[in-house]
Write a structure and sequence with these properties.
Layout (H helix, E strand, L loop, with lengths): L7 H14 L4 H15 L3 H20 L5 H30 L1
Length: 99
């Protein structure tokens, strides 16, 4: 709700609290990084690490035989989202270096 109402600082704090309870949740990792990258425009190295961790944890879910189909679907989406966001983050960093 905070993200949808553009209360990005509050949204990021909420994601941080959620990550304390579920530190390996790929969706939470990606979404918290999105707040940093696209809305708060800060802590981009931290956002990069969160995207990388989201991908790592999502792959773990896919390897886990006990993961449900819903969990696997969400993990595949997290991989796709985090990979795309990471690519854009790296691309933006490269442009900054050339200025």
């Amino acid at each position: 709700l905070c993200r949808e109402t553009r209360a990005y600082e509050e949204s990021y704090r909420a994601y941080q609290k959620a990550l304390v309870k579920a530190p390996k949740d790929p969706r939470l990792l990606n979404d918290a990084a999105v707040i940093l990258q696209y809305h708060l425009f800060r802590d981009l190295p931290k956002a990069r690490k969160m995207y990388e961790e989201a991908i790592l944890q999502a792959k773990r879910v896919l390897r886990d035989r006990s993961s449900s189909e819903a969990e696997k679907k969400e993990a595949r989406q997290a991989i796709s989202d985090a990979t795309g966001n990471l690519k854009l983050l790296k691309k933006a960093k490269g442009k900054q270096g050339r200025k």
